[in-house]
Amino acid sequence: MESAEFSRDPYPLLAALRARGPVQRVRTGKDRTTWVVTGWAEARAALADGRLSKDTARYFADRPSGRDLAPAVSRSMLATDPPDHGRLRKLAMAAFTPAAVGRLAPRVREIAEELAAALGRAGEAAGGGLVDLVEGFAAALPIAVICELLAVPEADRDAVRRWSDDLFAAAEPDTADRASHALAGYMTELIAARRAAPGDDVLSGLIAARDAGDRLTEPELVSLAVLLVVAGHETTANLIGNGLLALLRDDALRARLRDDPGLLPAAVEEFLRYEAPVTLATFRYATEEFDLGGVRIGAGDVVLVAPGGANRDPARFEAPDAVRLERAPLGGHLSFGHGPHHCLGAPLARTEARIAFEVLLARFPGLRLAADGRRDADGPGGSDGVTWRRTRLMRGPARLPVVLGPLGAAPVGRT
């Protein structure tokens, strides 16, 4: 599940596994096997099951992984169980409530419009309006937003984004390990700087919680800062990139959403289902034996829930391999997880994606793929020039070359 073919198109393998049963054992190494959950009902149940632990430190205590990940990454909030998980989550979630995100929306729009204007200038300079939508917009918007929230100086944001991308390098564990230490070291220095000169930002608020109430240890503070900057943009960047690709491959859908922006919230939900930003959820293991999807999970067994498979389960979704806005009100996708580890940044991700699509569709009504092909050819790229990220967890284009076409009017008056 770390091949270039799986990165390009994971759905045939996930469908084949699901056809054999919603929970299947897969060989993941010479002497290792993993349970992969591809059925929607089973995946939803697994995500909320307290018998599946995320405490990687405890799991690997007597099973050396051979990795050298920084503790700020390997022991993050994602790798904790209750009660620690709830304590850490409560401290972070205030910045991502619907009300807090509503206050951020105007600034998100400003950034999106600034990036769209820069795209237009880049297209003119290149001649013919040819640009990469991932580099110039899909990845640039969420990293700018989360870095502003955490008071990361603009001069440091390219490095932070590079380290974050490297953390998910599926075929290069040494690269990921080095990036984890670089990002942890940077956040340690940034915390020291914000402690000396606090501001009105999320990081300063977490520092205050640590220093005043002693509800965070210093390592937990660094780890939470690293997690927020990584999780705060990776999923959203893939959501925007995947959604843009779906739009670029469907002229009728693109025109429909351009003419009726009120449909964009439903489109965001359907893009989340159709092309899950997270193909395989993070590590879980069974703390005791139990039954799931008709199989017996043994104590100590590793279980990977596959939102990318569950979201296309025909037992839950009619015509799961097609984009249909009409199904969106029913929701039910698992792209943001379920249960205690449900993504706390989901409201911000939805807002960023909705604004991103609206701004691009209004400003570039003639937006189209740079190549004529509508579907991928073989290999990590394709006939339409799309190159997919090589990562086991994340699903999104690494490069999305487009022709901007004639300019339209910038949208105004919406948040």
User: How many β-strands, per DSSP?
Assistant: 12
CATH hierarchy: architecture: Orthogonal Bundle
Q: Looking at CATH, which topology would you report?
A: Cytochrome p450
Residue share in helix? 40-55%
Q: Could you tell me the radius of gyration in angstroms? A: 21 Å
> How widely separated are the two ends?
39 Å
CATH superfamily, by name, is: Cytochrome P450
Q: How much is the average pLDDT?
A: 89
Please tell me the total number of domains. 1
Structure description:
The chain has 415 residues and is of the alpha+beta class. It has a single domain (4-403), classed as Cytochrome P450 (Cytochrome p450, Orthogonal Bundle), CATH 1.10.630.10. Helix content is 50%, strand content 10%. The protein contains 17 helices and twelve strands. It has helices at residues 4-8, 11-20, 40-47, 56-59, 71-74, 84-93, 98-126, 133-138, 140-149, 157-167, 173-196, 202-213, 218-248, 251-259, 264-274, 307-310, 346-363, and strands at residues 23-29, 32-37, 52-53, 130-132, 284-286, 290-292, 295-297, 302-305, 368-369, 387-388, 397-399, 401-403. It has a five-stranded mixed sheet. α9 packs antiparallel against α13, α10 packs antiparallel against α11 and α13 (218-248) runs parallel beside α17 (346-363). It starts with a helix and ends in a 12-residue tail after the last strand.
